[in-house]
Each structure stands twice: as C-alpha cells, then as structure tokens.
Write a structure and sequence with these properties.
Length: about 90
C-alpha cells in the first residue's frame, strides 16, 4: 500500500492511501509517498478491542440517559409540587 502524510486545511495531519487522494484539494500532501505492508492483527485481539470500545460507549450512553432521566424526574417533581390554583 502506498501512503503519504497529508495536512487538512485546519492543521491536522492524517495518513491516506495516495491513490485515494488523487485530485482531492481538501488535503495538502506533506510527505513523499512510501510503500507500506500492514501486518493484520489476530481476529481475537481485534474482537477484544471492539468489545472494550462498545462497553465504553454503553457506559457513556447509560450515563447520559441517566442524567436526562434525573432531569425529567426533577421537573416532574417540581410540577407536582405546584399547588393547584384552579379550585380557589
């Protein structure tokens, strides 16, 4: 695989396969292309890492959901605490 380092318009660096970048003017090539042969990782190791990422995302979503539920419960309690003025 032939890759090079590119720079985005706002300063971040990113690696791309050079054939994918032909004619793309959103990125600026900042290194000469090099041939790289990537050695694939073991499927078990990949799966284990994917599970870790998913577990972290689950925790994040649960935390955000719990915060929102707490806010809704609080608002409900506030509404229930307002005296009924319609019968006066």
């Amino acid at each position: 695989m032939n890759i090079a380092l590119y720079k985005t318009g706002y300063g971040s660096n990113i690696l791309f396969e050079t054939r994918m970048m032909d004619g793309d003017d959103k990125y600026i090539q900042i290194t000469e292309p090099v041939d790289v042969e990537f050695i694939p990782l073991d499927n078990k190791a990949i799966t284990e890492q994917e599970i870790i990422v998913i577990d972290k995302k689950i925790k994040t979503v649960k935390a955000a959901t719990q915060i929102e539920l707490n806010q809704l419960e609080q608002r409900k309690a506030e509404l229930l605490a307002i005296p009924d003025m319609s019968n006066e």
